[in-house]
Amino acid sequence: MEIIYATTNKAKKEQVQNFLDYNGYDVKLITLKDIGFDEEIEENGETFEENSYIKAKAVKEFCIRNNINKIVVADDAGIMVDALNRKTSVYIQQDTEETILHKRQQLTYC
What we know:
It is built from 3 helices and 5 strands, in the order βαβαβββα. The protein is an alpha/beta fold and 110 residues long. The protein is globular. The N and C termini lie far apart (60 Å).
């Protein structure tokens, strides 16, 4: 059975494939590159789970449009920072981008 692993990260795919092989699963993972998926996916969820869902849904919609009938799995990962009230990297990235934008606006108006 082939399953689409919604990633372009070759090392990540190999790591999961090795896990599946080691545990005796007869599954071949194929990547976004393998199916010709090159669309930008805006992962704007508030949690890792939401971003995984957004990614899986976008890839599944691509598969439907292109008559690809396969299971799609996706994941999202990051860090959680205790010193920042357990904010995940999803929020840290958004906060950083907002801070950079704000600083640029301040410099523009100086």
